[in-house]
Request: fold
Amino acid sequence: MHGMMKIGVLCAALCGLCAPTQANTTAPDEAPSAPPGASSENVMTYPVKSVSALEKSADSSSLVPALPPSNVRVALLLPLHSEALGQAANAIRAGFLAAYAFEKSGIAVDVIDTGDNAEEVLTSYTGALTDHDVIVGPLSRSAVSAISQSDAVRKPTIALNGLDQSNSDMPLPKQLLLMGLSVEDEARQIALWAGANKPEGKAWIIVAGSPWQRRAAKAFAQKWMHLSRESEIVELNTSTGYLSAASLAQLKTKMQSEKPALMFLALDVDQIRETRMIIGKEIALYATSQLNTVALADRTMYEPMPELNGIRLVDLPWQIQPDHTAVMIYPHLEVAADQKRNVDMERLYALGIDAFRVAREIAMHNSTFEIDGVTGKLAVRFSATATHLERIEQQAIYRDGVAIPVVKMP
Reply:
């Protein structure tokens, strides 16, 4: 892809959790970037003793290898100089190294600039396998899919995204763990939350047609159906970036006659503000982290939005929970004194922190573990039969114009 990419569209391609004020598109085309590999120009290395490849324990069903007496070497594969993905990659890198600074014992980290073309990433990945014991990356969906379809995954690998849509149902290699942020996961968690309140009647799923919204709507609807409940997708038309007045009027008329039990708003924050003016405050409303567009550290710099009061959402503890132990421990992503923090980059920085913590647990030969992370409560299973990561984000609600944590979590 040539030319600069807007941050919102970039993050939509990565995780679907960003771009609150812009329409999301499909994943970006692969952009030309720095050559793959580990030249002295594009790799940051923390010198350690040389270690051989770790091998599977002969008496264990786990694919996580036993540790040798020397350090474990972890490779972090990111497209640091990519025109399309470089800013996101550097945010993740900063978070990863911030976490590493707190827990260096027994671990050495090499940061490898991969480029973002899927073939280049695969080349860098196979090269990293030779001298590293755990791999973290790649970042783009297309690169994760390329690695998943290859026969190259021979060591524990923590991908920072999911598979692209065309490969989303394919089986994963046994040592590949997916831990990217996902709007679909948020939608499923919201469905469970809303269902636990045992509403009587139909759930309406409100969308405005962008790809991330359709993915979120589909995920909510599927989970809602699994709960033996009924839902209906209601699509609103847009005009010059705003919801059309006619579409909103039709929604109001339909709501008055049919009275849904609740609404899941798969919309960005501006669209939700428009919709809330029409539908009022009588119906329970749920939304994704799209509703929270303010970085936690900058909250006092923004005007409250009382028109959102009462709307429930989920978001990362990094964005919503200032008294969370891990949130208090790690430093914030640095920005210029006269700049506000970018919420998209804050979430990716948090992903970098938790990616290191998961990598460290795997390197320490822990096959099943839980982490109270800055991206949520993480439950990881890394065994001979399957790898799986479940993330439960923090429940929140708008009060006095700001999103605050709901104390009781499932």
Notes: The radius of gyration is 22 Å. The first helix runs from residue 7 to 14. The first strand starts at residue 43 and ends at 45.
